[in-house]
Specification:
- By secondary structure, the chain is of the alpha/beta class.
- It has one domain (about 5-320).
- The chain contains eight helices and ten strands.
- The chain has helices at about 10-20, 25-35, 60-70, 75-80, 85-100, 165-170, 260-275, 305-320; strands at about 105-115, 120-130, 130-145, 155, 195-205, 220-225, 240, 250-255, 280-285, 290-300.
- Strands 1, 2, 3, 4, 5, 6, 7, 8, 9 and 10 form a ten-stranded mixed beta sheet that branches.
- The protein starts with 10 loop residues before the first helix and ends with a helix.
Amino acid sequence: MPAKENLQSDPFQAVFHARWAGLRDPHVRALAWLLDAPDLLDPAATQWDGKIASLTPASDLAVWLTVLDGAPENLHAFLMLRPYERLGRYAEKLLAFYFLRQGMLVAHGVQVHSGKNQTIGEFDYLLQNAGQFQHWEFATKLYLLEGSADGDYFVGPNLADTLGTKMRKILERQLALGQHPDAQMHLPAPIERACALIKGWLFYHGNDQASQALGVRSDHCRGFWCAQADAGRLDAECYVLLPRLSWLAPLQIESDQTVGKAAMTAALQTHFAQTSMPVLVSLLRFVDGIAQETRRGFVVPDDWRERAGQRAQRAFIASHSRP
């Protein structure tokens, strides 16, 4: 359970603020996180069979993002955000904006249909990269570890999926889309490489840690999770309950937009009286009049752990009972 040590910066948050504190537009900061944060998975891990992609950011990335931060209107127009934008679609648009700037993007979000009514799948990105025509799938995911350090025990906050089920879907189904006969009409050339770029955060309870055997990068972005009953023990100078589109980059915000502990716990109580969806809380400190995130963690309803364990066990049994 996190306690007073939450005032200490997580290594990634400290590095991110050192590099990108000058960026103020939240969408530019989210883009900076996508391009500069460690990948969630290790491309060299044997279980990924060479199918994990990794970005090599442009050499002028810092200059470009700084200029974009000063005039972000083109980015905002490209995003065309809707009131209930999904986090995954938001991240896809941000990355498409970068690929377009780099001259890599051939197509984005290309749906493949069979006949009039059946959707076979969707190409996240078709790219010209490293002299090859490539198909990239992209996922930005946040998972909480509950139980064994198996991929199926990293559970999504809404219990909809696990890290294990997500990766099986990507590797076994989504990356094979280019081989489907109905996909051929969408391809200007044969696909020379199909791979997946995975970004995200993993959240741990107490002293739990991911096993390196899972193929997770040792320097991945990480946080904590705790039950609502323990939220009052979280210790920071100030707090923000993060809306979904603010889940990517470490938060930097005006100090008057933060709340104290009493207001944070009251907001959590109101939230959980209406819904069982976990809440991502940013713990911050004041730096030169600005509040910067030092740690982040999901606060879950008090019965979430039991339900998450059941979800993980179902996924684990299903994966190990396949032929």
